[in-house]
Amino acid sequence: MSQTKNQEIPIEIMPEHISAEALHGIIENFILREGTDYGLNEVSYDKKAEQIRRQIDRGELKIIFDQSTETVSLLTLNDYKKIIQKLS
Q1: For the chain, does the N or the C end have fewer beta carbons within 10 angstroms?
Q2: Residue 56 belongs to domain spanning
Q3: Do the Cβ atoms of 76 and 30 come closer than 8 Å?
Q4: Residue 18: helix, strand or coil by DSSP?
Q5: Is 84 helix (H, G, I), strand (E, B) or coil?
Q6: Other C-beta atoms lying within 10 Å of the C-beta of residue 70
Q7: Do 55 and 10 form a contact (C-beta atoms < 8 A)?
């Protein structure tokens, strides 16, 4: 029997499987939701987007499709592993 809707394992989306525009939108959405407080040193939007892109390229951030909410978001590798472990 399949898992219930709220227990479905999130699907990892590889960055090379989506368009540059879609990836830009995901990164932009993440930055806007995260807020603007970066401590003592203010970080420009472009710099923050570049940092996030590098983290995605290194595998430190995962692009995740949540089937239960039908949304795409970014998760740290550690958070992604915890979710997978919990639902497996």
Answers
A1: N
A2: 5-87
A3: no
A4: coil
A5: helix
A6: 7
A7: no
Q: pTM, whole model, 2 decimals?
A: 0.81
pLDDT of residue 71: 93
**Total number of domains in the chain:** 1
CB-based contact 62:6 (threshold 8 Å):
no
- CA 43 from chain center: how many Å? 20
Q: How far is CA 79 from CA 14, 38, 87, in A?
A: 17, 21, 12
What H or E segment, with its residue span, contains residue 71? strand 71-76
What is the domain-level CATH number for residue 58?
A: 1.10.10.610
Tokens encoding 71: 């949304």
Confidence of residue 88 (pLDDT cuts 50, 70, 90): confident
Residue 39 has pLDDT above 70, yes or no: no
Q: At what angle do helices 45-58 and 20-34 cross, to 10 degrees?
A: 120
Which residues face 66 on adjacent strands? 71
